[in-house]
Amino acid sequence: MMDQPAGETRILDGKKLSNLLLDEIRDAVQKRAHKGLKTPHLAAILVGENGASLSYVQSKIRMCEKTGIRSTLMHLDENTSETELLQHIQTMNSDADIDGFIVQLPLPAHLDPDKMIPAIDPDKDVDGFHPINLGRMQLGLPTFLSATPAGVMLLLERYAIETAGKHCVILGRSNIVGTPLAILLSRNTEPGNCTVTLCHSKTKNIKEICRTADILIAALGRPHFVTADMVKAGAVIIDVGITRVPANNAKGYVVQGDVDFEQAAPIASAITPVPGGVGPMTVVSLLLNTLQATEKKDNQ
Fold first, then answer.
1. Which pLDDT tens digit goes with each residue over 9-26?
2. pLDDT tens readout for residues 166-222
């Protein structure tokens, strides 16, 4: 359980928690080595020069280095064809040394992720996006959970956020974040047992619905969408959004979440910052899935 001062808005510090989890992963990897077991190996396919994607993949590589997990990056040209990318996916599927791999999204416009993701071996799909893994998640069967929802659940668990009987409002119904979280938080688990309302672009009276939320999760990709008048006093706010907004600074941008932090934080009982909240937890969850994939192969 993560400690926080009483009587203040709790900052759900994903960076701090991720460092603790990285230590746990490193210990598990070292124990495997002492037993003569295989070192986990995570690979990534990156197509093109998307700056945000490149930064994200590099952060995964750095975290792998901290834990002793091996990492491989296949960086392909922007003009890589669908046939070529599918061939690279099959190469990773058949490489016994690679325990898990991801195809970094978004892909260039000419590449259809709905063709690429199902081509990944479900046993190596550590992003948890394959239809088989999504189906197993929905049924409550053992599987790889999508990294961002898994990271959110870890935050709630490790910070001992009470969820049972709470009303959770989720903004955004994507198959990557919103819909899986709605399923996970409504389950008879801990964390879980929430009454979940899933809002989207066609939802009416979103502000009024948000104000009823004990737990408010924003996953829209719309900077500062959630303002103070949408937050119930004492609510727990999880900000999944991360958008690069142009700015007059050295980088040329600032990173903003879906929640106006300065407005919402004084009203909330707990809140994640952006950056440093859900983002680091997403990467750690990917590494945990890779460790799980390696352990699964031990008995095969």
1. 999 999 999 999 999 999
2. 999 999 999 999 999 999 999 999 999 999 999 999 999 999 999 999 999 999 999
**Residue 76, φ and ψ in degrees, nearest 5:** -105, 155
Burial of residue 234 (number of CB atoms within 10 Å: 0-12, 13-18, 19+): exposed
Is omega for the bond preceding 40 within 30 degrees of 0, making it cis?
Answer: no
HSE value, Cβ hemisphere, 13 Å, CA-based, for 143: 23
Catalytic residue list: 60, 104, 127
Which pairs count as long-range contacts for 204-211, CB under 8 Å and 24+ apart, including other chains?
206/171, 206/230, 209/169, 210/169, 210/171
Dihedral of CA 27/30/35/41: which sign? positive
Token pair of 177, please?
């974040």
Residue 266 to residues 8, 121, 168: CA-CA distances in angstroms? 9, 45, 19
